Amino acid sequence: MPKVDLIVIALSSPILIGVYKENQLIKTYESELQSSEYLPEAFAELLENYEIETVSYANGPGSFMAIKMSYLFLKSLEIVNGVKLYAALAFEFNGYTPIKALGKLYFHYENGEIVTRPLGDVALKSMSLPNVLELHKYSTLTEPNYVLPAVN
Description:
The chain is of the alpha/beta class. It has helices at residues 35-49, 64-81; strands at residues 3-9, 15-21, 24-31, 51-58, 84-88, 99-100, 105-110, 113-118.
């Protein structure tokens, strides 16, 4: 089986999983399903076809439940299968543009901090997988980055 690395972006629809061989994107999985439905399905196929060495995931900000589900699933994979887990801010995958939070609020990355405020006139960009995996950019501190906006 080929040895590969993965990137998982499961914070919103669509869920994206990138398969990387020698740091180059070779295959993309995409689904509109919920992460609780899609991750087990996708990983059943991935584990059957590849030897997964590392998984990097978008650990937030984004949907609280999607972050939680992704982390629990991938952390279990790390423990059971010995796969090395890494994390990255979701902003790495959308060009540091705002991410939907709650109601009319969006997460913004400003001066190294995540803040919530209305969108304003900033353009949104969809999440996307990089063509080249740069694992050195990702952290071994993999806990979810729950940023919960204040509820009015």
